[in-house]
Fold each of these.
Amino acid sequence: MAGSSAERIGYLTRVQSFSACHRLHSVHLSDEENKEVYGKCNNPNGHGHNYKVEVTVRGKIDGVTGMVMNLTDLKQCIEDVIMTPLDHKNLDKDVPYFANVVSTTENLAVYIWDNMVKVTPPNLLYEIKIHETDKNIITYRGE
Ligand SMILES: Nc1nc2c(c(=O)[nH]1)N=C([C@H](O)[C@H](O)COP(=O)(O)OP(=O)(O)OP(=O)(O)O)CN2
Ligand SMILES: [Zn+2]
């Protein structure tokens, strides 16, 4: 069979955008402290983002299928974990996880990781990278 018998490791990424609104507000801070810490992002009426998420899996390139993971399956995982619960939602009001967790991009990456790891094959999920804006990007690898 063509190719070396040595194990080849691939990093496979699928990108998905979604729109959502949020407000940065911590239940552990007073209203004044929230204004102090989050500034304009604490506006009671919230604001929106067109988030771009990069989901990366890392694993052996299968010698028969030539795949780390079927992108069709990864696409479905993204639909279930990201699009259905988060797209066109108010993160703080529509997503129970964020009722008492500040909807920073860091915490959003943790949320997506914790749910994505449940639906992807064991030990394959490598990284969640979220572009909150063109300038603000968070990378999380489950640590
Ligand atoms: N560590 C974090 N800090 C901030 C986060 C975050 O998720 N993690 N989020 C925000 C706000 O959500 C805000 O929407 C982004 O703030 P800002 O940087 O002002 O947005 P822009 O980059 O688009 O604005 P520029 O003026 O172009 O820099 C704030 N902090
Ligand atoms: Zn924001």
Amino acid sequence: MPHVPLLELDRVSIRHEGAERATPVDVSFEVARGEVVLILGPSGCGKSTLTLALDGLVPHAVPAALEGTVRIAGLDTREHPVGVLSEHVGMVFQDPDAQIVTGTVLDEVCFAPENQLVEASEVLERAERALKLVGLWDRRAENPDTLSGGGRQRLAIACALAMSAPVLVLDEPTANLDPAGIDEVYAVLRELASDRDHAVVLVEHNLDAAVDLVDRVIVLDADGRLVIDGPARETLRDRADELVALGVWLPVSTLAALRLRDAGVVLEPLPLSPAELAAALDAQPSLPAPLSASSPVRSTALSPRPTLATGGQTGTATGGHAVAGEHAIRARALSVRRGGRRGPVVIEGVDLEVARADFLAIVGTNGAGKTSLLQALAGVIPAPPGTVDVLGVDPARCDAGERARRIGFVFQNPEHQFIAPTVAEELAQSLQLHGAGDVEPRVGAMLRRFGLEALRDQHPFLLSGGQKRRLSVGTALIAGAPVLALDEPTFGQDRARASELLDMLRTLNDDGTTVLVVTHDLQLVADYASHIAVMGDGRLLGVGPAGEVLAGPLIEQSGLRHPPLARATRGLQRHPDWHTVTRMSQLPVSSKGDS
Ligand SMILES: Nc1ncnc2c1ncn2[C@@H]1O[C@H](COP(=O)(O)OP(=O)(O)OP(=O)(O)O)[C@@H](O)[C@H]1O
Ligand SMILES: Nc1ncnc2c1ncn2[C@@H]1O[C@H](COP(=O)(O)OP(=O)(O)OP(=O)(O)O)[C@@H](O)[C@H]1O
């Protein structure tokens, strides 16, 4: 039999209806059985769009013009319906909510194979296997809406696995997962890849997780053209500078090594993992002193701090600009139910004080209650009266306008907050809600800042994942509220955009804005936060200055893992400069990579 690739793209360009230009443009590649392919490229270059062509949603379901040819298992996607094509390709979308259609976790996983008329007993067998693999079997009777963000992501992966297709396409599958969840997903992918019978195509910003698994990387530039198609490890090493210039992520150990190289310390070969970085650093007798001086990291988080309070009190811990005792947010014995009065208690007995100008990261495993805590502190979900105080008012007792003047909020899923028909109006409405003047120039400045000028008249729902996220952060920032609460602000961002966004938050924070972020990215926490609150099972397990929490046992006790660079440099902790290395995932934003 002639060799038939599982996927075959020949000069593929895709233009969304209403979009000015095609992204991707003129892309050709093949994927064979046994391959694990990673697609990289800056935000908006067409990665998600490309994945939609890999199971026939483009051109059949998504209004977009397809040029060129896509063949799945030899079938031209133009000539075969999605139902037939989906027997060959399982998909996990960037937004897991986009694919949830039924009322229970189990029904959801059975839905697609049932539609493919798979025998009932086999459907159940596949569903059980898939749900056990992602750790959701015990929750099979629950409504998918009651799962946390990470829970819904696991469910989407289980659904794709239950289809038993030879190709699995995953768009940012681990963006909302805790370390255990990421390990589980990659263990499943590794198993699939090891039988050499499946192929996996991944869009993933978390290269630290992916680097051991992928064989090959395909890189698109900002225009959506294929610029690199090569073996994974060699490409990440040999073309690291090119990738940095494009603004895409590299493993944080690689980024740290590039920073060290700028300071005159050359590590050969370029490390791709914490273990490789550790080995390379071990061989270095000393690190250059100027590194600490030139590091953009604020020293506050590393300077001696009040001891970590594990009873849920911040004690006297304050941010760089805070006056002792002056709080931006205070919660006292905060308990919250979700899903109505009979719903489960998801936050219990939280006492927390966030000082003005703190940069607080709320971390914890999936379902720990991070989002619920952030939303209760911001008044997005009701907290019992008298338990929360934001700059002197109880968010439960004030109207939306008054709340918005105090606290800007960014949801985990940006679509939840869009209300206007265009990107520019979305920003303008946010300003008007605050009764602010100078609307047009401020909207223009924010659009430029977030690289959204060309999309000012686009409908917010039609943006790429990263663009949506930037718009949602923009609507929260534009009004200049003194407190910002952001749920996974860098989710789905390329490296250049993520650094830019975090640097902007840091500038605001330096100017006195109190910043609260929920995130799974502990490297980000190590690089930016002044304080960390660790949640577990609806309770506050501890809170304190970032340096102390990261150095202490709480991170691992709560089921998280230390950031990659901290792990890589643990053996170096005796070295006076070790901490500068642990905070080196931030590279300056390259002007070339600015898309
Ligand atoms: N509307 C709801 N009804 C019932 N339970 C809910 C509801 N929303 C969330 N929960 C439950 O509350 C718990 C905490 O959820 P939350 O979203 O706050 O966690 P999280 O730490 O932000 O998780 P993740 O990292 O996965 O986003 C979870 O067990 C979740 O299943
Ligand atoms: N439904 C749509 N209608 C019109 N334009 C769209 C639509 N979806 C995406 N686009 C545009 O197409 C381009 C490619 O989007 P896509 O989501 O494929 O990018 P991406 O590389 O996955 O980005 P990200 O990393 O930000 O998720 C973007 O400029 C986006 O604005």
